[in-house]
Specification:
Radius of gyration: 18 Å
Number of strands: 4
Strand order of the largest sheet: 1-2
Number of helices: 3
Strand content: 15-25%
Length: about 100
Amino acid sequence: MSSMNTFGRISVCGAISASNEKSTPKASIVQLLLVGHELKMRGFLVNRWIKRWFEGIEQNKTWIQEGKLKYRETVTEGFENMPKAFIDMFNGVNFGKAIVKV
């Protein structure tokens, strides 16, 4: 956040990464950056933009093909390994999208 431009915007979506936290993270540094840069942070739900879903899919596809958007995924082979892949996802073992290839 320290690299954000003045009046910059941050999209906030999802909280699964913090689901196993033992304690609440301290927010003092975040608060200072938000106030100091006069940032606007706004959460969103994907269903608000459902009418533009395929527009987003096509744009992401273009950016991936152009190398402007990169992604990571963890692929687990075999239906029999699905329970382990699911548990690993909640333990933070995977990177990016967790996929089970059957």
